[in-house]
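Below: protein 1.
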Amino acid sequence: MQARRSRQEHETVEAQAPLSLAPMRPGSGLSDLTLRPPQRLTTTDPAMPQPGRAASVSAGLQVALAAAAATEASGGLSFLFLPVAMGAGAGLFYTAATDPGMIALLCAFAVTAGLALFARPRHIGFARTAGFAAALFAGAVAAGIEQRSGTVLLDQDVTTGITGLVEAREFDAGGRVRYLIRVISTADPELGRPPGRVRLVARAPHPPLPVGAPISGRARLSSPSGPAMPGGYDFAFRAFIDGIGAHGFFYRAPEAGDPLAQPPPGRLQTFWLGVRTVRERISARIRSVLPGDPGGIAAALAVSDRRGISEPTVDALRATGLAHILAISGLHMALAAGTLYLLIRKLLAAFPVAVEAWPVKKIAAIGALLAATAYLMISGGSVATQRAWVMLAIMLVAVLADRPALTMRNVALAAMAIILLTPSAVVGPGFQMSFAATAALISAYAVLAARKSGGQSAPSLLAGSAPGRAIILLAKAVLGLAITSLVAGLATGLFSAHHFHRLAGNGVLANVLAMPLVTFAVMPAGVLALLMMPFGLDEWPLRVMGKGLEGVIWTARYVESLGGDIVVGQIPILATVAASGGLIILVFLRSWLRLGGIALIGLGAVLALPPVRDPGPDILISEDGNLVALAGPDGLASNAARPSEFTFRQWQMALRDKPHVAPVAHKPVASAVAAAGSEDREAQGSEMESAEGEASEAATESKVLDELLASAAADRSRFHCASRGVCAAVHHRLKIIAINEAPLIGAACDRADLVVLAIPVRMRACHSGATLVTSRSLRVTGSLAIRIGPQPSPSTASPYHPRTTKPALAIDASLAGVVRPWTIQRYYDWRSRSYDVPD
């Protein structure tokens, strides 16, 4: 009891003790005195549990969270997340299986926006939540408006006569002309759903028809294809947004139509036709001075015409992370406008009177904005170029308003403007990669600037001499390029892996070597060439531009020879969403809460690793049924010796670049049938009846299927083909037959577990219980990815298929149940001119 009383008295004395005065340094005055509480003495053992420790930790965490929240609120974090909500709304709209109702979306936007405005003075948290919901519905409404301006897509491949007007033309390296044609009429047959615009290639030599000229000819039209596999890029959606309803080729050289029979173009159309003519002349002039790949890349940088670049050069640029220089993006727009901005400022600075009388900086900004607008028009106005122009315009307007140009708020404004103008860009790689790189660079350099301002750098030994200063300047420039390439590469690598299934391992090295050439030689010389081209003085700037591009091409090929191109395969959507959310948190937040973004990025990386993510499909079927592939231990085995490069390359990249395994060729079916018929005729004489001949032919074809399956059972996970249209394989206990001949359907169903028929038939299922896939069913479902399950499922027995079980199949369709304007053509019946849409 006395010990307890003594301890209580001791604590009471400590609590009542006055604050002590202690100087901060020996010899300092009263002004240096500071108040310090006395040291608290306690007899409590630190190892003993203290009841108040958990409460103090909780209180400290609350204080830290409150301080972090205050830091984020002071930086306008809520405004930065508005474009994220708008982008989510646009993305959800376009990924929905059916069209969301516009009236419901408009009502939801009005209600949530009203709640946000009403609750703002009363409850800021509720107001912000309602504001984010309103932004989400605003993005969906913008997507719905954009969807209404889409074009009609061709419902099936057809040969017909085309009459229209040339809207644009391009020349490839082989001299072929690719026309963009506004369709006026079709004939022989007349299409019930004619596309508004088509893109056709003219292979036959002919005098190229100018932009705006009427054109006619017989052409083969193909409908835009859907995703090559579930989760892949939907080319039909992109064609729908771009307003191109079909593509194909002329059978013969196209002819010039009757100008008097065409409606006269309006003023706006005449203006854009003139702009396209200027684009064509610029491209032709550049290629006349710079032949080969340098000229093709220069034309791509000037007017977005990439047709003259060879495929090996494009592959080298992609493998080294330099393919971004082919698209007119924010980098090119900034370099072009920045070059003119500096040129105007330097010219005006040469006149002191002008500097004193006029706002030189703002005049230069206006000139740069006009130059960027002209660059936008002559480059074709693609989505990437529009996005770059909007970002640059907002930054130049900030300069005119004496505000900081490169801020995260301006990036958010640019993103909102682009989502409102072209909401479909949200689901494309260009929008995602450009804004990820821009936001990441602004955030990274803000951190570096804060650290630099907070510390003092030691004087360098080289700073005193002119050569030393030059060395320091060069080192800083190289370091800046390395940091820029690293940050941008890390930010865009996530989306590159998701959309293109590859990463450029040596991308930083390639960008450090090539971007100085692009920044200081290629783009300035290109801008100067465009300015001097009307006066005929553009040759020497183009020569300088060409030399710089030769260096870029050499760099790409050299870095590609070092290796480092990583094929990662198809990334799960959950992994991309998690990592994207982590990147947003990491670049937007300024407090320690941004570390949560690193955790989300790590979660996305874990979900993308092979032990966690799905191993991929076992069987892939193209949307027309002509190509089937098996993912086996030796590679990707197909039923074609030379499969379609367009489809098969996408499959290979999605499955981590599996090598192609060609089918084993057997005796053709026609030869086998003929030989069998000859033997039968010799044995039975000329009196053999036709019915017996047909039965013999069917038996021979069935025998061919039996032989193919027997051969495939001994050489699994590989197709064995008697011809291009009759193939069989055994893959993971599953018997597969791929055919394009209707008489073989019954025999194939009796012998296989999976039958792929590459012709349209109304038969929906095999009576034997085998899974039947036809080109008619694929027209609705799109391409298929099939996984073979471990457990067998019941099956109907047949004389040739005595088993009562077959492996379970999990079938994933690209477009099953998706009824949108870019898929509705799949349900159109041209005979009845009606749609057979499922309920």
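Below: protein 2.
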Amino acid sequence: MAHEYNPAEIEPKWQSVWESDAVDAAVEDPARPKRYILEMFPYPSGNPHMGHVRNYSIGDVVARASRMRGYSVLHPIGWDAFGMPAENAAIKQNTHPAKWTYENIATQEAAFKRLGFSYDWQRKVVTCDPEFYRWGQWIFLKMFERGLVERKMNPVNWCPTCRTVLANEQVEGEGVCWRCSTRVEKRELDQWYFKITDYAQELLDDLDQLDGWPERVRTMQANWIGRSEGAEVDFTVCDADGNTTDETITVYTTRPDTLFGCSFFLLAPEHPLVSQFVDGTEYADAVAAVVERATHETAVERESGIAEKIGAFTGRYVVNPINQQRVPVWVANYVLMDYGTGAVMAVPSGDERDFAFARAYGLPIPPVVVAADDPLLASDPTLAQETDLRVTDVPWDAAYAGPGTMIQSGPFTGLSGGKGSAGADAVIRALAAAGTGRATVNFRLRDWLISRQRYWGNPIPVIHCPKCGIVPVPADQLPVILPLDLDITTGATLAEHPEFYEVACPVCGADARRETDTMDTFTCSSWYFLRYTDAANDTAPFAADKAAYWMPVDQYIGGIEHAILHLLYSRFFTKVLRDIGLLSIDEPFTRLLTQGMVKLDGAVMSKSKGNIVAPEEVIPRYGADTVRAYIMFMAPPDKDLDWSPEGVDGMYRYLNRVWRLVDEYADERDGYPQVSDQAGEYVPDLSAQTKNLAHLVHKSVKKATDDIDRMQFNTAIAALMELTNALYDYKTAVPVGDRDRAVFQFGIESLVKMLAPIAPHITEELWQVVLGNTGSIHAQEWPRYDAALCVRDEVELPVQVNGKVRGRITVARDADEAVVRQAALDAVQAQIAGKDVAKLIVVPNRIVTIVVK
């Protein structure tokens, strides 16, 4: 009986069955290997678009295929629900962020179910739910206990539009906010920090464990952590007459070999010594102007060179410990207080920024490390042996920061210079012997600023008591509930909600004030994947044994934009929770896929550009399976995909071909004789067409299996299309009464099973209704291939005559050479007639070459 393919009918039907039967619920089964498949959870911003569909379809294909291959699979979903977008949208729409957030979650959940994603919905996590953020507060307190939380006054990045601080990692490009692209300002505020720098070396070292990550992402993280080896050098403060004080300023340098070239000394505008040096002096106004201007420039602008380099002399000096020379102290906007010590020994001949500053202010640029081919040495060869500072300026257009020979460097002249060079090591030893320096390691990574002056976030569980100081909220009083009665339409924060912040000190009972900052939303996404392992736990964030079974995540999927922030913070949280005793792993994600973007007319789909294609625009006409299959077929998952309506239509036609093929087989199969015992186990009289089909089926199973393992879904689908064509060709070429039922059935069932993770609804209908099988297609065993049958029994060989292919022959793979020679001669008889065969060479299973005269 013919059946009609109607996705609008069959897809909701099977979605309802799967949900009621909880077929995708994860089970801890020690008898089976496990796979934890996870896509980065979405922000509840409304209807998903095809970029979301691609991300979540990738994970769903892997999860479904893994279940069929015998794995116990955890494939959960949740929502990253706190943050400024929800708050800003609520203000714009004159509603509450909780209402806006939960409505959008309901919309997205319905869309994900309509797409047939096989999530364990019982483990759903929403980060603005008190039962989730309670444990985020608990983790904060555990970090506080271990000395990993610090509150300090610091210059911070302030976004005037979002009205909150940003971590350094959240300032992008030319000093703009990562969320709204507003120019970021500098402000001095008391802020909360996680001391991620305590784990800097381990975060760097353990990148070597992540061979399942893209090299690009590992490199980005290594560069952000930024380990460097160098020296700390102590400079003594002195006045214009050289009279020294007890004050020393320590700098960090990766180039101690250039110390003799230090011609001026720089302080960050925020350095506490700046005001001490200039207050009440003639230099105060000029220095104040530099300090004021720096407050309007971001760290990115100042450090990268985007901002103009400006400075002012303080009237004070320091003594260079390597040669006792007096060096003027300047304030410069490109020196940052939160990198190193906030002070820099300026060597303009070896640093591009120092070079530009020296040229701008007429400061000396003495050369101290030069390349062998430098014109300076050609014009004055004696410089190679010069120990004193004879040349105080260079005829260069730019600094030279490479390796070379040390000159004008006292007893170190003639040694090799550069990072880690013999000259650098010798200078460090000399400083250490004099007690004015030491070898050290430094990191670019800064502590993680987590304070946010916004409402819609996880409250920081701390109380400020005038008697007891900073008091952590007792664990049995968690969660600190975020009040829902705050009117935020004017941008109000918790600091304007006395019912929230007016509390009694839990230690002494005195009137105290609850912390009104909330945590950076990345603190939620840094551990949500752990909550999925035990989402209903109400006594701990998760049970250690549950996490031990499921973790680490075997396959993590998300955008390259999270290469530094989210992934680095998640690695940090994992290591902290390991040290607390909740985890036994070092790294959270074994394999990482950074999927490509979905584009429309060459532009990345985004709501801000107004160029999105939403699933509900396509599914009513074509069905969810067509959307899923198309988006998996059109490009490798790590490459960008250009959306094409014509391509969608083509995939719909392909699924209809599969439907007709299976439906016709179901009607005809009783007329198929069974010649072979099983698929591919041949009896001697199996026909050539059946042998060829068996080969193509097994070859396709191997190809699709391997490609799905490698997440090359586009080529896996191409293999299924090739198999579909082969099954149709067999039907066309072989009459019903001559078709081998076992081989054809194996081909049909293999096709349906391998298509199931990609197009789950149509395959469920074909399996249970059209083919009449019992049990879900998604609970069936993945088809197995026979490696021997993946290789043809026969091979086609080209036959060359005098270097040109003149014919082709088909012979048994193990045919005797005499048989091959004769077949080749017969195939090109017309080309060699009347000529003498001088040579005939057979390369087994490759080619036959004939030379004639």
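The chain has a mean pLDDT of 92.
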